[in-house]
Amino acid sequence: MEKRLIYADNAATTRMSETVLQAMIPYMTELYGNPSSGLYSLGKKAKKGLEDARSRIASVLGADAEEIFFTSGGSEADNWAIRGVADKLSKKGRHIITSAIEHPAVLRTVEDLEKHGYRITVLPVDSTGLVSPEDLKAALRDDTILTAIMFANNEIGTIQPIRELCEIAHSRGSVFFTDAVQAVGHVDMSLHNLGVDLMAFSAHKIHGPKGIGGLYIKKGTRISSLITGGGQERKRRSGTENVPGAVGFAKALEEMYSEEGLKKRADVKRLRDLLSEKLLAIPYTRLNGHPTQRLPGNLHISCEFVEGESLVAWLDIMGICASTGSACSTASLDPSHVLLSIGLPHETAHGSLRLTLDFDNTEKDIAYIAKTVQSVLEKLRAMSPIYPRG
């Protein structure tokens, strides 16, 4: 079998686009001034680049420029949203609601707050990974200060009914935060219509640079600062701004929501569906996540009678970059908390495979992935003492 190099782990990170890189280079080589050094032209030009990037991001997302705050990435934005609201509204209440399938940056943060006297309710999800609006209604209390439900899951790709969940939370006076790191760039949205109070997002999931993310803070939302210091980001997030990163972020986001980007997104979904059809035809495989309400490039399957780590290792040997789930927890030997939350038994959860496609993938890639996965599964199952034969 011909060996090729195919990248199919775009939920972990993406290749930076050439146009994004070219947009950043001037701010690393010529316009390298500190944007806070506004008394001379080099600093002023850097400041202009930063604020132009902020305005462009806001325009694409349907927000106002003063509602966009740059961070070092999605995890910082998650921490800021949760800890900032918890601190600011602690006198009003100390109850926080989240879901069982959140990213570790959310779950570990609320667990830490629980140690400091906050009360946490973790909502279950159904077998497709959806949070029930009725469960949220039942969980809300007079002292609920924050509801944190992710927009789209990083492992199984399920997209939540965010607008509906947000309206329910608001009906009881709760601030609503969504981690949209996987959704931004891949799902149509307008923040002013969506209604959320806070939203986290990141550049390296959409062909932008690593080390830059953002937090949308709706006007009027009460939130404390996470990082104090020199007073950058309108005194809400101190630290010298990452101007090249912000410029690259804006360019990447514009490309994702351009007419060409939307056409490419539709083609990614077509390729994902083609791959899904081929892989689910293999015996003892199943789809994880919602069958239709999911990210366009996400395909997450469970393969019985194999270990996911062995499958991914063999795929790597054959030139395919894939994963068993979240890039943030691949070092753990425990089953995915997301897969356990949708009701998979431990042994099935251990045999998971996540393939996340993007613009660079082709039909030739799909054919090779499908053929290789089937071949590797046959080899691994041949060594399994519990695989049914005959």
How is this structure best described in words?
The chain is α/β, with parallel strands linked by helices and 390 residues long. It folds into 2 domains: 6-15 and 259-382, Alpha-Beta Complex (Aspartate Aminotransferase, domain 1), CATH 3.90.1150; 18-256, Aspartate Aminotransferase, domain 2, CATH 3.40.640. Helix content is 41%, strand content 13%. It contains 15 helices and 12 strands. It has helices spanning 18-24, 26-29, 41-61, 74-88, 104-115, 133-139, 162-171, 191-194, 232-235, 243-256, 259-280, 308-317, 337-341, 346-349, 363-382, and strands at 6-7, 68-71, 95-99, 119-123, 144-148, 175-179, 198-202, 213-217, 285-287, 298-303, 320-321, 352-356. The strands form 3 sheets. A 7-stranded mixed sheet has the order 2-8-7-6-5-3-4, with helices on both faces. A 3-stranded antiparallel sheet has the order 9-10-12. Helix 8 (191-194) links the parallel strand 6 (175-179) and strand 7 (198-202). 48% of the residues are buried.
Helix content: 40-55%
H/E element order: EHHHEHEHEHEHEHEEHHHEEHEHHEH
What is the distance, rounded to the nearest whole angstrom, between the alpha carbons of the first and last residues?
A: 27 Å
What is the 3D shape?
globular
With helices defined by DSSP (H or I, 4 residues minimum), what is the helix count?
Answer: 15
**Major sheet, described briefly?**
7 strands, mixed
The pLDDT mean sits at 95
SSE diagram, text form:
Blueprint: E1 6-7, H1 18-24, H2 26-29, H3 41-61, E2 68-71, H4 74-88, E3 95-99, H5 104-115, E4 119-123, H6 133-139, E5 144-148, H7 162-171, E6 175-179, H8 191-194, E7 198-202, E8 213-217, H9 232-235, H10 243-256, H11 259-280, E9 285-287, E10 298-303, H12 308-317, E11 320-321, H13 337-341, H14 346-349, E12 352-356, H15 363-382
Parallel strand pairs: 1-11, 3-4, 3-5, 5-6, 6-7
Antiparallel strand pairs: 2-8, 7-8, 9-10, 10-12
Helix pairs in contact: 1-10, 3-10, 4-5, 11-15, 12-15
